[in-house]
Amino acid sequence: MNTHLVVIFLVAFGKATVEGQKSCDIPKVLQGTWFSWEVGEPTTTTIDEWSYERQGPKQGRQRTECVASSRNGSDHTLIFKGSECYTCVKAFPRTLNVFEKFETPCVTLERNEKPTIDRICRGLRQDQQLITLFNKNFVPISCRSSLEGVWHFAYQNRFRFTGECDSPDAKIQSCQTPGTQFLIQNQKFNITYRQCQGMDGTFNGVVEFSCLGDWFIGKNHYFAVVNTKESREDEKYRCFLKNRDDDLYIGASITAECNTLKTVEKSPERYRVTPVKSEVVEPGCRFPQNFTGEWINTANIDAEVVINETHIIETYYPDRARYRRTIYVCREQRDTRIMMARLTVDGCQKDYICFDFVPRHHNVIRYRKGTAVIKNDFSTVCSWVQFPNKEEWRYDLYLAAKPVPVRCPVAGKFNFTQKGESPFKTRILGGVTLSPRPDIRCKQNISDFSVCDTDQKEMAIDADYCLSVDYLGRPVDIYSDPDYRMKCIGYWQENLKSYLITYDDLDPLSKYRCWVYQRADLNRVLMSQAVGAFCDVRQDVTSWNYTEGAVVAVDMTEYERERDQCPMHFDDGENPWQETENYIKVFPWLIYRSTTSAIDGTVNAFLVSMAALLLKLLF
Ligand SMILES: *[C@@H]1O[C@H](CO)[C@@H](O)[C@H](O)[C@H]1NC(C)=O
Ligand SMILES: *[C@@H]1O[C@H](CO)[C@@H](O)[C@H](O)[C@H]1NC(C)=O
Ligand SMILES: *[C@@H]1O[C@H](CO)[C@@H](O)[C@H](O)[C@H]1NC(C)=O
Ligand SMILES: *[C@@H]1O[C@H](CO)[C@@H](O)[C@H](O)[C@H]1NC(C)=O
Ligand SMILES: *[C@@H]1O[C@H](CO)[C@@H](O)[C@H](O)[C@H]1NC(C)=O
Ligand SMILES: *[C@@H]1O[C@H](CO)[C@@H](O)[C@H](O)[C@H]1NC(C)=O
Ligand SMILES: *[C@@H]1O[C@H](CO)[C@@H](O)[C@H](O)[C@H]1NC(C)=O
């Protein structure tokens, strides 16, 4: 009874607040002081938790209070109450520094009408002009996702001159300064304008812009900028437009508005750009031959890495924009360190970076990278101080894109217990429907971990394994179709921990998985599987949750039964370059079995040996 009263009270209270002030929630991204071009004049808008104040030379000052709000994803609908009437504002935050809005004229209600969102926003049309608001206290954002590279350009401005101004020295320059990923240089770019003979309205000068962030609407890629040397507010903010399908043209606004850019072609100002080719860097050294091939970078799984004798080419496809490519050219090698020239986007200045490699083993190249510097000098670039001096660190990994399985460092037949956020579960490989188990009594249900194929290159994990014997005491293994199969593709020891990389085509999360493993006893092994292709420095054999980058820890005890031909094997990975193929092969010698007499057997064996000898002599 009491709870009912409380519920009723809450509902009533909630209803009351819809009409009161508390029902309005102006999000933090919209709060601040903004500049925009509205109703034909420069406008300043101040938004705080409750109110919306607009000020312009002709429109004067208008203060409204927020009375209702709703949100759909990142879009917000807000109702503001003026002295007499209500306005509906639909706000679309684009970046930290820019939002766009639609708004209705002020709506006056009949006496009995309620200011609901539906009622006030009724007059809103989807084809209305969007108004762009620029944050007056903007925080510059890295230009990298907006514009990166060096271009020569020719440009048109429909409002200032006719024709295209094409001067060989005109260029757009947006390059990241090496080693300063988060610093101010990367938040700016330059456009160098050159005067064209006989075209009034063209001029000589460099304009420096700070980036305010970028966003996509369909295929249109917008980015907003602010001219760093301009103090007049209406001349300061500009909007640019690129199109994903056509990177030869860039559109720009000539006012503090983005709505004038519908397509690149119809933009008030249009730049025709040609990328400036970067200079060619001659390789000065060669990588070890066994680096050549296709790799994946575990630090960035979505990147493709191709290595040939002299170049490492990393291509990354960020899902929204085009691809990003970084090319490293081998310049000079001493001991394990190789100085490389790094070429990023066309035209930007190259820089130098040092890689410290461990010789390849299995399907793994381990390396670490120094910080990038401008100087082309081995002792500077590859000085050990260039390597980030963290207390705990691990090598980064390149893993073969088409790995060749190797013998697993842990092999044999184990029974295990597990603990983890994502433990091994019974499932049917390949999606075949589970047929009901025939009525066979299991003597014991265990979890089974086997590396028993002849080469011991594949781990088979069965979360629920029926351990049973038939009436003759032979094991019944009819349910032994494993739930998981993973190929071992590399292992090594680092920081006194043993690491293993496995490969499973069917793993939806990560085909490559890193493990930490350790022998705990003569016949007991502990292992911990990581979330993905690399192991966190903190991951240990008992790690089982995300805080240490792991998903499951297993504790395994060997249990080879009499008839399982599966010898135990353990390698701590101290010397991963050592060849450890499994030479213990079990050949069923059928001839002995088919005969009863021992003498017959030896005769048969003799005959087989003779036949083999003859074959050898003949071929
Ligand atoms: C929310 O936004 C999505 C896409 O922007 C739109 O399809 C959907 O209709 C909106 N929902 C409401 C309730 O307005
Ligand atoms: C832009 O040009 C100015 C003057 O030439 C220069 O000082 C500045 O460093 C340049 N900025 C960028 C980001 O290239
Ligand atoms: C390696 O790749 C680069 C870039 O694709 C290419 O210019 C170079 O000729 C290649 N080198 C060899 C030895 O194939
Ligand atoms: C790759 O070559 C290096 C020498 O250049 C050698 O030390 C290493 O064992 C080789 N690795 C493999 C897997 O062949
Ligand atoms: C093993 O599991 C099966 C079902 O999966 C069950 O029928 C059987 O009783 C279990 N046996 C033991 C010994 O727990
Ligand atoms: C994660 O595991 C560690 C031990 O491996 C434990 O101390 C910690 O409490 C666990 N964290 C969570 C959130 O379960
Ligand atoms: C499985 O392992 C446990 C210890 O973890 C052990 O007590 C049990 O006997 C093992 N089962 C078999 C069939 O070896």
Automatic annotation (TrEMBL):
Residue stretches making up the DUF7043 domain: 282-393
UniProt KW keywords: Signal
InterPro entries to which the protein is assigned, alphabetical: DUF7042, DUF7043, DUF7044
Domain DUF7042 intervals: 142-274, 405-538
UniProt-listed Pfam families: DUF7042 (PF23069), DUF7043 (PF23070), DUF7044 (PF23071)
Signal peptide residue numbers: 1-20
All copies of domain DUF7044, residue ranges: 23-121
GO terms classed as biological process: wound healing
PANTHER family: LD32918P (PTHR22255:SF1), LP06548P (PTHR22255)
Name of the protein: Uncharacterized protein
